[in-house]
Write a structure and sequence with these properties.
The chain is mainly α. It is built from 17 helices and no strands. The longest helix has 33 residues.
């Protein structure tokens, strides 16, 4: 009887290059949605709350579908999930351009694009990284991939601003619908050995149900999940509503575009540093520092006069802290629970992030329509930053101890 030969792994360069390119496209397009708020609402006669609600639904859909996308990717490989996500992304962007009512806009921008993002962003890509990259390089690789998503924001937000200015918001969305289909050929480069037809897969130590039960009974998983809720609240509120906040302060539209681009540019640095530090420092300390620093940055921004320079400085600081929570959070989950169900567990933590995103973007629109300002939501963001800094400190990062199961006799 011949021994089963393990399938070869994908090369480090291929995984990082193609994974980073996919995240660049998917996250880059998403980060620019705030640029559409005023053009869409003014032409269509909708309230800011209507637009905000659609983006809020998108974040919830992303979180909910992310759980199932993670399960499918862990069980059958990420390739199928990436293809489906790319197609849905294109359909959702086209639907945004053609929607005549807030309901249809919410179905397109909310449900369809939310499902698309679940299949083309971090939970799925990080599952590939976890399976294909050794533990000693994992946090670094996650930081590098998150940095690519930030570069996508830096690259795509000005492009989206120019597309709106040159083509109008309808045609700009259709152009993006064609662009995101580039994810399809990139997905073919990430077909993992061991998930194809006739592949021999290693026996699983746990079922999905067992893995989830273990995680939700573990206090540190719940603390990481709570912190991620705050991350979602802060970044999506700022990403969607800051362009309108700056217009309300009398600043020209290009200031908002440059601000979002600066967030993306500095986040390239921040996420890479966070991922690299995660190989050497306690991830709970990194996360606590990030959330505390966000609270300080927002406080200072609200206290100083709003000028283009203060906006750019705030954007640079927030950019350094923007997605830098992602590498240490996901690397901590992999370190504690292993990589067998990493996409699934990351999907559940990310659902918490998206619940925070829903609340942040929706409250931003709701309270603006009711009070005429964003002041209350800014203050909530500060308080939540302090909360997240505190709850991450008790996280235990040591690998969880499980009862021995199905051991083979020593040879």
């Amino acid at each position: 009887m011949s021994a089963t030969v393990p399938a070869p792994s994908l090369s480090l360069g291929r995984v990082l290059l193609c994974g980073a390119a996919i995240v660049t496209l998917s996250m880059g397009v998403r980060h620019g949605f705030g640029l559409w708020l005023q053009p869409v609402t003014q032409e269509m006669g909708w309230s800011r709350q209507s637009f905000s609600f659609a983006i809020a639904v998108q974040n919830i859909a992303w979180g909910v579908f992310g759980i199932f996308a993670g399960m499918v990717a862990d069980r059958f490989g990420a390739f199928r999930v990436l293809i489906a996500g790319a197609v849905l992304y294109s359909l959702g962007l086209a639907g945004m351009a053609l929607s005549p009512t807030p309901l249809l806009f919410a179905l397109s921008a909310g449900i369809t694009i939310g499902a698309a993002q679940a299949g083309t962003t971090y939970a799925v890509i990080y599952g590939i990284l976890g399976r294909q990259i050794p533990a000693e390089k994992r946090s670094w690789a996650m930081g590098l991939t998150a940095a690519a998503g930030s570069f996508g924001q830096f690259l795509m937000v000005p492009v989206e601003g120019q597309l709106i200015a040159q083509l109008g918001w309808h045609q700009a969305l259709l152009a993006l619908a064609a662009m995101v289909l580039l994810i399809v050929p990139l997905a073919f480069c990430l077909r993992e050995p061991g998930f194809g037809k006739g592949s021999v897969r290693p026996a699983r130590e746990q079922t999905i149900t067992q893995a989830l039960g273990e995680a939700f009974r573990y206090r540190s998983f719940l603390l990481l999940t709570a912190g991620y809720f705050v991350c979602g609240f802060q970044v999506v509120f700022i990403g969607v509503h800051m362009p309108s906040y700056l217009r309300d302060q009398g600043l020209p539209p290009q200031v908002a575009s440059y601000a979002l681009a600066l967030i993306g540019l500095f986040n390239v640095l921040g996420t890479y540093i966070a991922g690299s530090l995660g190989q050497r420092l306690a991830k709970r300390h990194i996360l606590s520092f990030i959330y505390a620093a966000r609270a300080v940055a927002i406080t200072v921004f609200l206290l100083v006069p709003v000028t283009p320079m203060s906006v750019y400085i705030f954007s640079a600081v927030m950019g350094t802290l923007w997605l830098s929570t992602i590498p240490p959070t996901n690397a901590a989950v992999a370190q504690i629970f292993g990589v067998q169900h990493l996409s699934t567990l990351s999907g559940f933590i990310f659902l918490s992030h998206q619940l925070g995103s829903f609340l942040g973007v929706w409250l931003g629109g709701l309270l603006y329509d009711r009070t005429g300002s964003y002041d209350v939501v800014w203050k909530i963001s500060i308080a939540l930053g302090v909360f997240a800094a505190l709850v991450n400190l008790p996280v235990r990062e040591e690998p969880i101890r499980r009862p021995l199961a199905r051991t083979e006799p020593a040879r």
